[in-house]
Structure prediction request, 355 residues.
Amino acid sequence: MRTILIAIVCAIGLGSCSDQSGPAEPTPRQVGVVVAKPEPLVQGGAITGEVRARVQTDLSFRVSGKIIERLVEVGQSVKAGQLLARIDPEQQKADLDVAAANLQSAEAQQTQAQLAFDRQQSLFRTQVTTRAALDQAQEALLTAQASTKSAQALFETAQDTLSYTELKADADGVITARNAEVGQVAQAAQVVFTLAHDGDRDAVFEVVESAFLRPIEGDGTVTLLSDPTQKITAKVREISPTIDSATGTIKVKVAISSDAPIPLGAPVVGRFNYLPQDVIQLPWSAMTSKDGKPAVWIIDPACSVVSARTIDVAGYETGSFVVKSGVSAGDVVVTDGTKFLRPGEIVSYVKEASK
Prediction:
């Protein structure tokens, strides 16, 4: 009996000692990490556009009038000097007739003045007439000659004006647009046809401004939307310095050789790559939020304590994102287990993991 009592007392004593030791320390949370390290990033993109002529001209009459004849259609190939359309030339013909009559009258007056001067000059040699009469005849001749020159200029201007009633192609090319019909009264300088000149072509793209803020590496490629297997090397030729207020985009022109079998107006896809640059790239799982801003969990290697740090994101890639600022080379960033962390928590991780 005494033995049983002693055993009970010992058990109670051991229980009391156990209670005084306190609760056990929690096990640090196991997380996955990467060590931030700059790596070269090669980005690119694909944009859609259409093929246009390198040189494109808007053709218009230089005088106003009623269109009486149109000789070409959209899509038709034309040669330099080919007649495209004609306006009613009756008014211009009448002006030319008036100018011709004035020229004939001026020439007749010049002829009379020339005869009078020659006569006075002959009489002056024989001392029959006075010097004043000779000077007067010479003045009349000079006036008649000036009137003839003026009438000649007006006549040539009337001829040019009559020629302006015919609209002709200024180069070999293809008619891509028509903005007037027979019977319509066309005003001077009103666009009637658009002519795409033969020769080199451009692939024209409307892109957001940020797409070409970084320099492009080498040449890009252009492919037909209907035939992706046909790739043509192309080089960026022109980037517009202004933004289209209606679309918020800029116009980019990519040079295409005239030998490329791509028709005008064909939809194309352009592909390009940026020059590589060293950036810190982290997996999607590393991103968290702090005060509504993007952030990541950083581990202090000295004590394994985590803290949330806000970052600026430069870009989003498939399965990863590019850090603009907030993370430095050598920082230990948590990639797995971020949802359950709290500031100041001690974690456990494999230090050999790196990126």
About this structure: DSSP finds three helices and 25 strands in the chain.
